[in-house]
C-alpha cells in the first residue's frame, strides 16, 4: 500500500503521500500502468494527472484519485493505491475495483 514509497517523487514529479487525506489540496493518488502494459491487458491508457473514480466492487465504497505515477508492475493488478485511499475504500490489501475516468488535464499525453 505504498508505505515504502512515502515521500519519494512520482512519475508526475509530485511527492507520494501514502497518508493523503483525500482533499483537494491533499488528494488520494494512484499508480496506473504505462500505455504498453495497459493495452496488453486490455485496459484503456490513462494520462498522468488524470482523475479516476475507484469503486470497491465488494462494498460499493468509492473515492476519486489522481494518477500521479506509473505502475504497478505486478501481474494481475490494474492499479496501486496509497494506504489512505485503500482505507477509505475499506480494502484489506488487494481488492476487485472498477476504475472510471473522471477528467484529464488538457494537453497531457500517455507515455510509454
Automatic annotation (TrEMBL):
InterPro entries, A to Z: RlpA-like_sf
Protein name: Septal ring lytic transglycosylase RlpA family protein
Amino acid at each position: 500500500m505504498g508505505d515504502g514509497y512515502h515521500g519519494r517523487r512520482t512519475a508526475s514529479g509530485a511527492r507520494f503521500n501514502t497518508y493523503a487525506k483525500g482533499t483537494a489540496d491533499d488528494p488520494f493518488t494512484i499508480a496506473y500502468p504505462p500505455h504498453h502494459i495497459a493495452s496488453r491487458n486490455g485496459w484503456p491508457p490513462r494520462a498522468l494527472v488524470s482523475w479516476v473514480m475507484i469503486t470497491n466492487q465488494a462494498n460499493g465504497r468509492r473515492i476519486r484519485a489522481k494518477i500521479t505515477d506509473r505502475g504497478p508492475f505486478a501481474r494481475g493488478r490494474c492499479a496501486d493505491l496509497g494506504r489512505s485511499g485503500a482505507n477509505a475504500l475499506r480494502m484489506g490489501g488487494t481488492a476487485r475495483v472498477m476504475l472510471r475516468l473522471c477528467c484529464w488535464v488538457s494537453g497531457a499525453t500517455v507515455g510509454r
